[in-house]
Amino acid sequence: MDKAKVIRDPVHKDIFLSELEMRLVDTPEFQRLRRIKQLGVTNLVYPSANHTRFEHSIGAAHIAGRIIGRFDVGDAGEALRAAALLHDIGHGPLSHTSEELLKRHLDRSHEDATLSVIRESGIRDILSEYSVDPDVVLAILSKEHMLSGLISGEVDVDRMDYLARDAYHTGVAYGVIDMDRLVNTVELVDGDIVISQGGLRAVEGLLVARFLMTPTVYLHHTSRIADAMFLRATERAVEEGLLRLEDLMRMDDFDIQAMFRAAGGYVRHMGRRLEDRRLFKTAWFADETCGDEGLRESFYALMEDLGRWARLEVELAEDCGLEEGFVIVDITPRSRYEESNALIWDGEAARPVSMVSPIVRILQDTEASKWSVGVYAPQEHLERVRGICGNIKGYL
Amino acid sequence: MDKAKVIRDPVHKDIFLSELEMRLVDTPEFQRLRRIKQLGVTNLVYPSANHTRFEHSIGAAHIAGRIIGRFDVGDAGEALRAAALLHDIGHGPLSHTSEELLKRHLDRSHEDATLSVIRESGIRDILSEYSVDPDVVLAILSKEHMLSGLISGEVDVDRMDYLARDAYHTGVAYGVIDMDRLVNTVELVDGDIVISQGGLRAVEGLLVARFLMTPTVYLHHTSRIADAMFLRATERAVEEGLLRLEDLMRMDDFDIQAMFRAAGGYVRHMGRRLEDRRLFKTAWFADETCGDEGLRESFYALMEDLGRWARLEVELAEDCGLEEGFVIVDITPRSRYEESNALIWDGEAARPVSMVSPIVRILQDTEASKWSVGVYAPQEHLERVRGICGNIKGYL
Amino acid sequence: MDKAKVIRDPVHKDIFLSELEMRLVDTPEFQRLRRIKQLGVTNLVYPSANHTRFEHSIGAAHIAGRIIGRFDVGDAGEALRAAALLHDIGHGPLSHTSEELLKRHLDRSHEDATLSVIRESGIRDILSEYSVDPDVVLAILSKEHMLSGLISGEVDVDRMDYLARDAYHTGVAYGVIDMDRLVNTVELVDGDIVISQGGLRAVEGLLVARFLMTPTVYLHHTSRIADAMFLRATERAVEEGLLRLEDLMRMDDFDIQAMFRAAGGYVRHMGRRLEDRRLFKTAWFADETCGDEGLRESFYALMEDLGRWARLEVELAEDCGLEEGFVIVDITPRSRYEESNALIWDGEAARPVSMVSPIVRILQDTEASKWSVGVYAPQEHLERVRGICGNIKGYL
Amino acid sequence: MDKAKVIRDPVHKDIFLSELEMRLVDTPEFQRLRRIKQLGVTNLVYPSANHTRFEHSIGAAHIAGRIIGRFDVGDAGEALRAAALLHDIGHGPLSHTSEELLKRHLDRSHEDATLSVIRESGIRDILSEYSVDPDVVLAILSKEHMLSGLISGEVDVDRMDYLARDAYHTGVAYGVIDMDRLVNTVELVDGDIVISQGGLRAVEGLLVARFLMTPTVYLHHTSRIADAMFLRATERAVEEGLLRLEDLMRMDDFDIQAMFRAAGGYVRHMGRRLEDRRLFKTAWFADETCGDEGLRESFYALMEDLGRWARLEVELAEDCGLEEGFVIVDITPRSRYEESNALIWDGEAARPVSMVSPIVRILQDTEASKWSVGVYAPQEHLERVRGICGNIKGYL
To answer: How far is the first Cα of chain B from the last one, in angstroms, to the nearest whole number?
Structure first.
């Protein structure tokens, strides 16, 4: 690889980018990622979590390069690094919130948006100019290429980078992963991406890291509240015509902030609450420790019926004498713990890590059994909402 | 100290805040600091440098608490921590740029702004409510208190925190300081803040760190260019009435961005350039290695006469056939290397570290001899500007 | 606390010791710990694992001081720090091996040895001289004091220090623990040592760290082999009168090495093998994955009958045509996972962490189900021993 | 490179060794390095400084491999890595002390010893077996090869590894170097080893690190005392026929310890003092701050005349009524600051870093001006020795 430029990264230290990669980084589409926080509103809980999709994308490309440098994949190497670099280029601002909005209202994922951006921008031509076939990059990002799993799979460069980076910037101790060992034990066997036996412990460490980071960071209860407030306010902005979801993939955190500040009513109110960190509080909460499987099923059914979910919130608000939007019902999405399907290669056969490792099996089961629902409301109305929620089953 | 809340910080790990401190943190004035990047545009060079004045302020309060916990200062301890927490509360967005603008056009410092914010906001009352005299806090921040030097002095908590934090978030190796040793060797002797003999090496380390961080981060040539572009664009925005400097201390990075995006002409153009990282390039450069002291003196004279400086830029631009604002003359401000006055206490007498340590004396001399001037212009006009600058002396 | 001296430690940075503590550290009994590697022969696997009981003991005292500094325990604070400092003072060289030898042949633990050393050396007087009651220190170390659990309990300063330190010196990523959070959430409630709710995640992290460190470091298969070779050679040395087990608690790594080098025959041979790292290899291996519970029970029965165990090895060796000592049967001792009994305090009641945390319950169960047996022999005889072991059940 | 084995190192994480390298590591000559502490008696000051020449040698080979992997040097790559691995294989125990003894009494360096060991052991054949010419390895280690400078030069892999490793194990903050940047900016230009412009700051950082590590660790006054005691005791042991200097390159720390313990009289006494850390104290001290250049010259003259130096110590001891060996005159050897000759390549010409960098020039000058002399004696005789030394000039 020609090494056109070096970028200093606190997680990986020196990262070398080729001339092609620098050209991609210098597009307005990629520069936009500088203005999208990796963890959205998490900085309201971990004040240093201000890192962005920009450095994460460069980090992912770096890890991809380290892995691919160990194989002979011919021209695919450059395409793979480019795919890693571009994997979040269609990501909207607001982190999870934008994903949720796209899914709910447009039935699109940010991966779809990424493909669109690549297809429709100058990125296509830049790739071609450097003899990298854009269709190979698109295939990798569409999970249709032999190497797709390195970008988005069980143990992929996206996850390796974000776990290490999120731990670094939050200061949480649990995201420490053995990057070196992971990078050095990924193998290509008969076209499958596997981890050799010597990397088993590192894979276990990665899965444990994700297991511990999930409640500590990704699903931290205060983050959930802020996220839920953000989501409701943004949905309202969409309804009021302040925001077109189709534009999300080209917007950044500044656009959203400007939209909130320019709005009136509920949207403005929620924007100010988030700026001043005057968050809603938890009025009611249930999770797997309550042992009520019927309750879980009711809420999972609700997740499939957005209309009914919205009406529930309205009813609860009305019965508390509150305006719409001041009672939020937040259902944590089903956990997918796909990493446990990562293949471990013992020199003869490849088996899922969940078969090889008892601890992974346990993490998988524990993850699968987790669910939680919270009802949030402003501090000053908490008691009232709490009272009404005593009979929440009656509303389901 | 009552420990009302713990905040996780990647530099210091667990930071405990008292109830009073949480009340201060929860004011809109303090929450604003979340939206002000510590290093302004430096993230265009070090992509992870997205940390903010918010976590820096909390970190400074933490260090202050560690130091003060070793002395018996009575009630002053709480006031000192509060002062450390609030020391940047009047800081405007844009980092150095806002300081420069205040100085040039209003002859104010961000320290003045900090005092105003405390005096005029609810912060005063919150302090009183917790029996901390606001006037003591103001005195500490005005350098009129015996302990002022801990907040802003030769070796102060501001510097300890920002060196460590800037190194952490840029990934640069040179900011590593021996925080433990510094905190443990600060002493109060006859009302003077001194460092005991055992901390000499740690002070040397701190000064070396700052010495190496300065060209690597704080005065990185690309940062200088971006800073200079920002400054010119903002000055133009002030001229065009888009921005009132008096408001700067209550604005954040989002306000500035919104202002740039809403503007037209030059301001808008420069805003887009900064967003897309299409920076000016260096057409001409001179520093202490050229040996021309007359040149240095000419530029230092120019720094004292803003009108003549502006005219110089206009003349250069005109002679290159460029519009005003497309040739920028950037003069690095005189270095102040005050840390070399830190007092080292050998058990009998306190002497400036520059007297005790040869390396510090050298760093001081080297710093003092440094100066540099750059002339920046768009890539596409670089050759023309370069030609004109061959005769830059003729313009001075 | 008076802070008489500061010691620089790579794990905890500055550690302050009082005058009393320095007096204890300066005794020949404590200085001996400099010459006892913390992890015995583990440096044959992790070359940097050369840290000693000396710095570990100082680290444990430091953590004890941090915790106790948060409570009001009156005079007990100094006794507790002294106990933490002295907790390994009777530890023999060879790490696990010496513990195993004491247990097998003298039915003593190294804790007993620690009590003897304190009672019989000048340490008693030094404690008294500084008004610390030696009997309180002895009570703490005998688990007869309210605070004993901090030194040796579910989540104790011994474990906190060694996990962090072993990870630091091996370079293994998994020992990272959230020391700050642990130290800050230990509480004394009604005389019980508990961890408050805010520390639950940190306790889980500690237990996961130990879970991952165990196979990676503590029971690494190559370490087990080296340990087993060491144990057999030392037992032979005892039989031959080259070593008195009663003296072990006053010996160091140099004494053992000198004994090996001065010996002849088997002991000398094994000593050289260990020096040159010509280790035995695994001829046969079984663990919980084989599903044969009868096998496990047979070996556990063998562990209780040292004579029969020794005869088994002799028989296996004879049938392979090898001399005694060249076939070693190594049975991993039953795991004790006592940390899962650590109490979590939710403000109202204290419950074992295994009840509160699903992941801990799983780790506990997994640990409990683990067992393993290896048969080791020299490389050159491996095939022969492998053949005989095909029928190992016949020997049990 | 075939990657036969991975070794976990706390400084570099995963280090891969080839089959040849593993064969070299597995020789008794190389395994001996496990038993030689990198920093000799420094662990009496920094308790965790127990790292050995073994892991340092492997680390140096690793850095060499990283650098050489960036060039096309044909077969020389393997020879260079082998040379880096073997560069300390003739190093005696006791660190500096053994070097000093070899120089004084045999006029040999440990580099000479390294060449002997390679020539006379099985290592020669192992190299040949893997088609690496032993004479090329010997040439590299004799500074007669184009690449010799990478192993022992201005900015070499030896120094890069030991600075980082010594900082890691002492816990001192100042040894932090930007390994990545150094490795990535070493270039081969016309057969010269140079550092490209982008690495200038990293070289400055390395030199500053060494500058700060020198007084803090390498010449720490307590280390100097312990070193001096060790040296005198060992010289006496040589005189008494307890030790043959010719054997030093095959001995380890255990041999020395055993020799001390088996000895009688002065040698035994000093051995016990070192074990129990009952060190001599400083009775008299002078360094460059005293401004007496005549004094410096007198001592430097003494360094050239070992006989006179020994007689001085005897005279001082006699006049204090002490036995020979209880007054030690310790002269710090002249500093060599060769790193300042490292070449910086600006794309057109290579110039010494001391010409390019003001800070390096200053460090060089400061280093050059440093000198110090200490007179050490047992605590109990300190006053008497102090009195006599008042007139030390009369003895010179």
So the answer is: 59
Q: Is the CB of A8 less than 8 angstroms away from the CB of B34?
A: no
Question: Chains with 3 or more CB pairs closer than 8 angstroms to A?
Answer: B, C, D
Q: Are strands A343-345 and B5-9 parallel, antiparallel or unpaired?
A: unpaired
Residue ranges per structural domain of chain A: 1-171+220-278
DSSP class per residue in A218-271: IT-HHHHHHHHHHHHHHHHHHHTTS--GGGGGG--HHHHHHHHHH--HHHHHHH
* H, E, C per residue of A95-153: CHHHHHHHHHHHCCCHHHHHHHHHHHCCHHHHHHHCCCCHHHHHHHHCCCCCCHHHHCC
Instruction: Specify the CATH number of the domain B5-213.
Output: 1.10.3210.10
C-alpha–C-alpha distance, residues D224 and D41, integer Å: 9
Question: Position of tokens 């370079």?
Answer: C171
Looking at chain B, which subunits does it touch, using at least 3 CB pairs closer than 8 Å as the criterion?
A: A, C, D
Q: Which helix (H) or strand (E) holds B200?
A: helix B200-213
Do the Cβ atoms of A198 and D14 come within 8 Å? no
Distance from CA of B70 to the nearest CA of D (A): 22
Nearest neighbour of B359 by CB, restricted to D201, D216, D366: D366
Facing residue for B184 by CB, picked from C14, C178, C181: C14
Q: What share of chain B is helix, strand, coil (3-state, %, to 5)?
A: 60, 10, 25
- What tens digit of pLDDT does each residue of A184-238 get? 999 888 878 899 988 988 888 888 888 888 888 999 999 999 999 999 999 999 9
Say yes or no for a CB contact (<8 Å) between B173 and D177: yes
Closest by CA position to B174, among listed D359, C178, D12, A15:
D359
Side chain identity, residue A21 = E
Is residue C375 scored above 60 in pLDDT? yes
Residue A281's beta-bridge partner residues?
A377
Query: Band of the pLDDT at D2, cuts 50, 70, 90?
Result: low
How many angstroms separate the Cα of C76 from the Cα of each of C117, C132, C137, C196? 21, 8, 9, 22
The alpha-carbon gap from C192 to the nearest alpha carbon of chain A, in Å, equals 26
- In this complex, the residue of C174, C178, C362 whose CB is nearest that of residue A366 is C362
- The residue of chain A nearest to residue D15, with distances taken between CA atoms, is A180
All residues of chain B having their beta carbon less than 8 Å from the beta carbon of residue C198 are: 6
CATH code for the domain defined by D5-171:
1.10.3210.10
From 1.10.240.10, 1.10.3210.10, 3.30.450.40, 3.40.50.1110, which CATH number describes the A1-171+220-278 domain? Answer: 1.10.3210.10
CATH of region C1-171? 1.10.3210.10
Chain B neighbors of D176, CB-CB under 8 A: 173-174, 176
Query: Given this model, what pLDDT does residue A289 score?
Result: 82
Give the nearest chain D residue to A184 (CA atoms): D14
